[in-house]
Amino acid sequence: MKLIIISGVSGSGKSVALNTLEDQNYLCIDNLPLTLLPALAQQMKEDPHYQQCAVGIDGRNAPASFKDFSAFLDTFTHNNIQCEIIFLDADDDILLKRFSETRRKHPLSSQQIPLSEAIEQERQLLAPLHHQADLRINTTHTNVHELRRMVIERVSRNAATPMSLALVSFGFKHGTPPGADFVFDVRCLPNPHWVPELRDKTGFDEDVITFLEQEQAVIDMRQQIGDFILNWLPHFRDNNRSYLTIAIGCTGGQHRSVYLVEAIAKRLQSAGEQALLIRHRERS
């Protein structure tokens, strides 16, 4: 039995996540009051139709109920139900833009409470869920299709699947990926951008790969990051982690970081790493 709780600030993509889980044959309930979680746990225990459930929880709950959130979760533990919390967030300016474009009303806003204040109030209310979340996804730079893919790849998977490891390339000039467990800065390596014939190419191209692999510093960085991941993965698995995200960043996210993610992924796959997700943020 498994329950997935989808929470987060309004406008961050909770409906998309729930709809995606529904497509993956989860029984989905949106805006479930926290006080009804124990009743859901009992229903899941007694009814075989409730083996996979997902619920959406947002700031429309009574404020006092958030203080008892840990106690509500204990109900699932006592009934041997695996519970996973996914928390979605986005930057304030993006949330404001989304509400403006969709013309939807924030659930906590009113004539007395402006939208910006409502967003902050909701974050404060949801702090207990954010703190206990198993996975946090910032959707500031994520479109609907990318969010759906992330939910399918990282949430809607067989329970027997081992810890999911994600390798992400990115450009520092666009900001670091929110939620990364480890961030490696490879801007110290020789940059193909300054070679005119390589500037418009990427880390996928053979001449860029040849350029980088002629540099000992690149080889050392590739080797040492790979060693770090392989050495520490067993420890994270022993600690019952479900997800681990490792981000590798260069200046623009086109050459060095793309090359290193691809090269390190091949090494991990050769070592038998099956649950490996590869994402090139600036190439999507």
Q: Label the CATH architecture of the largest domain.
A: 3-Layer(aba) Sandwich
> What fraction, in percent, of the residue positions are helical?
40-55%
- Mean pLDDT across residues: 88
CATH superfamily (homologous) name of the largest domain: P-loop containing nucleotide triphosphate hydrolases
CATH fold-level name of the largest domain: Rossmann fold
What oligomeric state is this? single chain
Structural class per helix/strand content?
alpha/beta
What portion of the residues fall into strands of 2 or more residues? 15-25%
Low-confidence stretches: none
Number of domains: 2
Largest sheet: 5 strands, parallel
Distance between the termini: 34 Å
